[in-house]
Amino acid sequence: MPSHVVLYKAAAFEVRKYAPSVLAMCSYGDGVKWGDPSNDSSPFMQLARYIGVFGQAQNSPSDKIPMTAPVLIAPEAIPMTAPVLVAGGGEAAGDTMSFVLPASKYSKVEDAPVPTNPNIKLQQLPERVQAVRAFTWSFRADRARENLAILLDDLERDGRYAPQRTAAGEVDWTAAGYNAPFVLPFMKRNEVMVSVLENPKAA
């Protein structure tokens, strides 16, 4: 898990302050679903080849990189309004999967091996404060959005932290999966994370 400290704990969520980290990112194409690594061109498989899971790492200088948990998925930005409607199907076109590179070895993008696959991008993730809700069972887009809706409702009722929103009203959120696809659904650990700001009136 990326380095963090817990700033606040509520009954159904907690607020964490994460240290900066480096991400290796790959976007989903049409017809690919979250949590489905069976497609050879899926983001998971492309990222796995970048770090050298299946042999020689597809990076320069071919360094094998330890895989860390969680795997992050950043959904395509959409305005969040009330109520939040959850669509079935779970196709992920426009979403992005990321592996968090080990912070002990790669503290900056410049330190990380350069991808040889043009679909893989590296990004520096700054220090951030996020509200986090955990959930089990399948790591699917519809399940993540259901739990996002619950987390946003919990944040509003609690009042101590508020989601960060863009001028267009978009919420900065991410889904995190901690387990391999073959792990039994009821044993899986997943999370939704929302970037937040402390409410000065509640401090």
From TrEMBL:
SUPFAM superfamilies: Probable bacterial effector-binding domain (SSF55136). Transmembrane segments: none annotated. Coiled coil: none annotated. InterPro entries: Reg_factor_effector_dom_sf, SOUL_heme-bd. Belongs to the HEBP family. This is SOUL heme-binding protein.
